[in-house]
Amino acid sequence: QVQVVESGGGLVQAGGSLRLSCAASAYIFSPNVMGWYRQAPGKQRELVATISSAGSTNYVDFVKGRFTISRDGAENKVSLQMNSLKPEDTAVYYCNAKRTGWGPNYDAWGQGTQVTVSS
After folding, report:
1. Are 91 and 36 within 8 A, CB to CB?
2. Closest of 82, 7, 87, 91 to residue 44, by C-alpha
3. CA-to-CA distance for 58 and 23, rounded, in angstroms?
4. Closest by alpha carbon to 2, among 94, 104, 75, 89?
5. Which residues contact 42 (CB under 8 A, 6 or more apart)?
6. DSSP at 31
């Protein structure tokens, strides 16, 4: 069973930066895609950014130019550098590791890490 563990959340003032990190314990069959999602109070979980095993990235419009996702494929680790943070970025951020195709498929989530941006 693949385990996903996030770290790096916290409290920051508007305009500040935070870096989130995530590691997936997929030692043989690496994820095809890893990504970050977030869920604010009273709202549904939403996509923030994803990165494929080939390095292709996808960002939701409201973080483009502010957030950067990167991946260490050899270690099944992904990071999210968040700059110019806004109060509306406040949410629990979840890391996801997904594998489809040949070999065992999985869709694993971390426990979440809180990001709070004060105004």
Report:
1. no
2. 91
3. 19
4. 104
5. none
6. -
Name residue 35's beta-bridge partners. Answer: 50, 96
For residue 86, give the nearest of 12, 19, 35, 27 by alpha carbon.
Answer: 12
Q: For residue 32, what are its two tokens?
A: 């095809």
Q: Which of 8, 28, 26 is nearest to 18 (CA)?
A: 8
Tokens of 58: 């996808």
Q: Which two tokens stand for residue 113?
A: 């890490």
Write the pLDDT tens digit of every residue in 65-83: 999 999 986 779 999 999 9
pLDDT in tens, 2-40: 899 999 999 999 999 999 999 999 777 889 999 999 999
